[in-house]
Amino acid sequence: MKYIEVTIKAHPCNETITDVLAALMAEIGFESFVPCESGTQAYIQKTLFDEEALKNVLADFPIPDTDIVYTLSEPEDKDWNEEWEKNFFQPIVIGERCVIHSTFHTDYPKAEYDIVINPQMAFGTGHHETTSSIIAELLDADLKGKSVLDMGCGTSILAILASMRGANPVTAIDIDDWCVNNSRDNIALNHIDNITVELGDASLLHGSAPFDVIIANINRNILLADMPAYTACMHSGSELYMSGFYMEDIPAIREKAESLGLEFTHHREKNRWVAVKFVMR
Ligand SMILES: C[S@@+](CC[C@H](N)C(=O)[O-])C[C@H]1O[C@@H](n2cnc3c(N)ncnc32)[C@H](O)[C@@H]1O
Predict the structure, then answer these.
(1) Which segments of 104-204 are extended strands (E)?
(2) Per-residue confidence of the chain (281 residues) as pLDDT tens digits?
């Protein structure tokens, strides 16, 4: 697959700026990000690259007084996530109970839940704040015998943990066919047989039976747009966990959720990223 590499130089440059860049660029199709001292390198499939969309994102960059310039290059064809995995994906332990590692790791800590992920081109190794916050929520949740939907499943890391914690049945949905294929591989690697993976978006939920628990780690705008479809397949007492947005987005997310009959329970914050929990009244 052909990729475009965009090298962004930001001044000033700090973790908040590279996080916001990654969040905004993910919304226009960028898949992987490698922060560097002066900014970040970001990768997008050549067929999805729209330079005008990139210019608009950078022109409307929400942190004032940030100077941003970029250069483009077309690196040789290779699997960039594989490169990233080999060089940067280290085993990670979350909540002292869940270890995530890849097939090529031989030395990793033992934990109650041992998840093997080969992310290839999909998002979800547990290193991102949003994934690890939802994992921490799932470790606290009672999932035994509950039906779970993982919307925007990426690698299906969250669906796999839910199944390991007793959820049954589990449905995982993603809009990206790379994620759907990768999910199926990861589910098999973890010897799980009760997760159904589907390609699509919230329109697939139309007419669906209610879920006891819904997880959606996507982004603010998609969550705001798709929340009515999620709540249409929840019953009184169903739980909704959402992430993929920042502290400052909580009021908008909360207002929408409450207008749909959800009650806010709490939020969890990590480097300004948040995960929120709601329960249907
Ligand atoms: C931030 S990643 C989360 C991946 C994984 N669930 C995790 O927590 O690490 C968001 C995922 O949502 C998918 N996605 C984006 N828009 C979507 C939509 N409208 N419906 C379903 N999935 C979507 C993306 O392809 C991506 O895999």
Answers:
(1) 113-116, 148-151, 170-174, 195-199
(2) 578 999 999 999 998 899 899 889 988 988 778 888 899 989 888 888 999 999 999 999 999 999 999 999 987 655 555 666 666 678 999 999 999 999 888 889 999 999 999 877 667 888 889 999 999 999 999 999 999 999 999 999 999 999 999 999 999 999 989 899 999 999 999 999 999 999 999 999 999 999 999 999 998 889 999 999 999 999 999 999 999 998 989 999 999 999 999 999 999 999 889 999 999 99
What is the CA 159 to chain-centroid distance, rounded?
12
The protein residue whose alpha carbon is closest to atom 19 in ligand 1 is 201
Please tell me if the CB atom of residue 160 comes closer than 6 angstroms to any atom of ligand 1. no
Say if ligand 1 is within 6 A of residue 217 CB. Answer: yes
Does the annotation place 40 within a ligand binding site? no
Which residues, 6+ apart, have CB-to-CB distance to 274 below 8 Å? 133, 243, 245, 246, 247, 249, 250, 267, 268
Return the CATH number of 3-78, one of 1.10.260, 3.30.70, 1.20.120, 2.20.28. Answer: 3.30.70
217 assigned ligand-binding residue: yes
Task: Note the pTM of the prediction, 2 decimals.
Answer: 0.77
Q: Is the CB–ligand 1 distance for residue 152 below 6 Å?
A: yes
- 83-280 belongs to CATH 3.40.50.150: yes
